[in-house]
Amino acid sequence: MKRIYMDHAATTQLSQKALEAMLPYFREEYGNPSAVYSYGQAAKNALEKCRNRVAKAIGALPTEIYFTSGGTESDNWAIRSICRMKCEKGKHIITTQMEHNAVRRTLEQLEEDGYEVTYLQPDRRGQITAEQLEAAIREDTILVTIMLANNVVGTVLDIRALAAVTRKHRILFHTDAVQAVGHIPVNVRQLGVDFLSISGHKFNGPKGVGVLFCKLPNRLRPLLTGGGQEKEERSGTENIPAIVGMTEALEENIGSLKENMEYLNGLMKRMNESLTELPGVYPTGDPAHRLPGFCSYVIEGIPHSVLLVNKLNEQNICVSSGSACSASSKEASHVLLSLGYENPLASGALRLTFGIDNTEDDVIHAAEAVKAAIQMIRAEQVSRAPRLEGRVTEI
Ligand code: PLP
Q1: Is 83 marked active-site?
Q2: What is the mean pLDDT of residues 143-162?
Q3: Cα 284 to the chain's mean position, in Å?
Q4: What torsion, rounded to 10 degrees, do the Cα atoms 14, 287, 195, 88 define?
Q5: Please, which residues bridge with residue 76 across strands?
Q6: Are 151 and 178 in contact (CB under 8 A)?
Q7: What letter does residue 200 receive in the DSSP assignment?
Q8: Which residue of 186, 301, 350, 351 has the smallest Cβ count within 10 Å?
Q9: Mean pLDDT across the stretch 79-86?
């Protein structure tokens, strides 16, 4: 049975070009970039070339690019670093109720350490307004962290408008752009953000590598201390093969961004048309501002999404109930609850995220399989419901 992979928001396949670019750095060019001899310097050159290329891809300066172990580290580092940088000013942070756990859990831990966090509630589509943000700002606000694109419903937020508010108040702005980079145009200057997180494996690069863009170079407080790599700000021997692979994949994706977006949106439209033929299937997120090829729904009559994911898995179709980190959880996603969906509807969520390797035939086949699975689960629920006949008392 052919595998149909429709979970590109969870992770993506390493591109062939990225793999080929990485290979020499495993066995031929394996020098340590911190070594003084020329063999080490060859690795250092590769590293700095990647820094330049990544900077160019997102409209930054090379000095503003730091390589990390992925989106989680970039989020943690930005948030914790700003807290330490601004400790004299205050302990108030603003975020949203629909952030990824890499941000959410970090903020929860900071709350235990005495920080106060305001969680802005998104509207039904997953949008936050500039007015909402402005109203939450206080004298002691030191950081606003709001994601560029949501990983459960695919909404793309107006970060440019939100960052303009914080600039006016001289408050630092971080955005988690993990789901956006490589999928929609992202330019740090146009967005006006101070910090931005990237993860390699979301755009056909390798896993375990990412980027933190920081507009305040040389002011970051290290999360990892040690040998002083990355200008003394992020210690640990640089993962050269992964950095090279991520850079290659980023350029490759950005090079064909427009065609990819059109293609993926075509697949998304097709899936939406097919699934919404069935009553009780509701698309979630913002139809006007969303990631390309990102389909998300809440579905009536599905007590929890795992039932649906498992049924499709039996047919080798890989989809998600929401974010990968809660894939096995039977609880509704905090994102859907924050958007105002209530249980049981919020528990019956489905996310299908396409990549350019998906074909129109895949979509047609998967759509039929999803509809059949929904009907099967609904029928099972009806047959399991307690039978009341014979027990009804006439009054
Ligand atoms: N932020 C968002 C929005 C994500 O979707 C993810 C991954 O799912 C992360 C952060 C974490 O990134 P990584 O897997 O590179 O640690």
Answers
A1: no
A2: 98
A3: 16
A4: -140
A5: none
A6: yes
A7: G
A8: 301
A9: 96
- Is ligand 1 within 6 A of the CB of residue 175? no
Share of the chain above pLDDT 70, in %: 95
Q: In what side-by-side order are the strands of the sheet with 349-353?
A: 281-283, 294-299, 349-353
CA distance 244 to 48: 10
| 130: its two tokens | 């500039």
Distance CA 42, CA 319 (A): 42
pLDDT, residue 390, reads 44
pLDDT for 309 equals 96
- Per-residue b/e over 312-323, b at no fewer than 16 CB within 10 Å? beebebbbbbbb
Alpha carbons within 13 angstroms on the beta-carbon side of residue 24 total: 7
| Predicted confidence (pLDDT) at residue 324 exceeds the cutoff of 50 | no
Looking at residues 239-263, what average pLDDT do you find?
98
Q: Which two tokens stand for residue 53?
A: 């290329």
Alpha carbon distance 197, 77 (integer Å): 9
Find, among 208, 229, 225, 381, the residue nearest to 303 by Cα. Answer: 381
Alpha carbon nearest to ligand 1 atom 13, residue: 71
Share of the chain above pLDDT 90, in %: 92
Residue 391 clears pLDDT 80, i.e. is over it:
no
pLDDT in tens, 193-210: 999 999 999 999 999 999
Element (H, E) at 219: none
Q: Are 220 and 194 in contact (CB under 8 A)?
A: no
Q: Residue 114 corresponds to which tokens in the numbers above? A: 């005495």
Q: At what angle do helices 71-85 and 101-112 cross, to 10 degrees?
A: 30
Residue type, 230: E
The predicted pLDDT at position 329 comes to 62
Can you tell me which residue has the tokens 């809660």?
A: 326
pLDDT tier, 58 (very low <50, low <70, confident <90, very high otherwise): very high
The answer to whether the CB of 178 is under 6 A from ligand 1 is yes
**Identity of the amino acid at 189:** R
28 Cα–ligand 1 center, Å = 31
Counted residue by residue, the chain has a size of 395
7 lines ligand 1 (CB under 6 A): no
| Short-list 46, 48, 10, 53, CA closest to 248 | 53
